[in-house]
Amino acid sequence: MFTGIVTDIGEVVSVETRGELRRLRIACSYAAESIALGASIACNGACLTVVAVASAEGRTIFDVDVGAETLRLTTAGAWRDGTRINLERALKIGDELGGHIVTGHVDGFSTIVSREDFDGMTRFLIETPWALARFVAQKGSVALDGVSLTVNTVEENRFSILLIPHTLAMTTLGDRKTADALNLEVDLMARYAARLSETR
């Protein structure tokens, strides 16, 4: 379980393809001794399991395996050496819930339709698949590349979000441009509310 509050920006340092599985090696600033084997780390919003940890050249390196389903539903298949990704450690009891409840189970891709920069801020217009659009509500929450964000406006299968300077500086979203794909996780409560409505 996560909150969508990014705590580090990692860098992919190697990608090894093993059939339909990919082993990724990611550099980060977390202390190596603080990462346990089997720990969950959200990587651009996708919850991945740590399978190895080491220190190299003053950086912590951890390995994760990315399976076929995650490659299909997320942007992980496009990650290469040098790709920067948002990282978040799993939530612990007693931690501040500063964003919203995020599971790390990415629902699919969204695409940036337009980017508007003004007064140090950025507004994205996002297009989402129709199957996911019904879970996006004005003033509701979404996670984009693992970042908890508030939805400003919604029209059909498009919605807008506003990024403040702090978010632009502390996440990779400041690097994103028109036509880029983002990992989308819809709000957990919206998903369950929709399911309950369907089964009545």
Structure keywords:
six-stranded antiparallel barrel, 200 residues, 4 helices, 14% helix, mainly beta, Elongation Factor Tu (Ef-tu), domain 3, 2 domains
Explain this structure to me?
With 200 residues, the chain is mainly β. The chain folds into two domains: 8-89, Beta Barrel (Elongation Factor Tu (Ef-tu), domain 3); 108-198, Elongation Factor Tu (Ef-tu), domain 3 (Beta Barrel), CATH 2.40.30. Helix content is 14%, strand content 46%. It is built from four helices and twelve strands. It has helices at residues 68-73, 130-133, 165-170, 188-198, and strands at 8-18, 21-28, 40-43, 46-56, 59-66, 84-89, 108-118, 121-127, 141-144, 147-155, 158-163, 181-186. The strands form two sheets. A six-stranded antiparallel beta barrel has the order 1-2-5-4-3-6. The model has no long low-confidence stretch (mean pLDDT 93).
Note the topology.
Elements: E1 8-18, E2 21-28, E3 40-43, E4 46-56, E5 59-66, H1 68-73, E6 84-89, E7 108-118, E8 121-127, H2 130-133, E9 141-144, E10 147-155, E11 158-163, H3 165-170, E12 181-186, H4 188-198
Antiparallel strand pairs: 1-2, 1-6, 2-5, 3-4, 3-6, 4-5, 7-8, 7-12, 8-11, 9-10, 9-12, 10-11
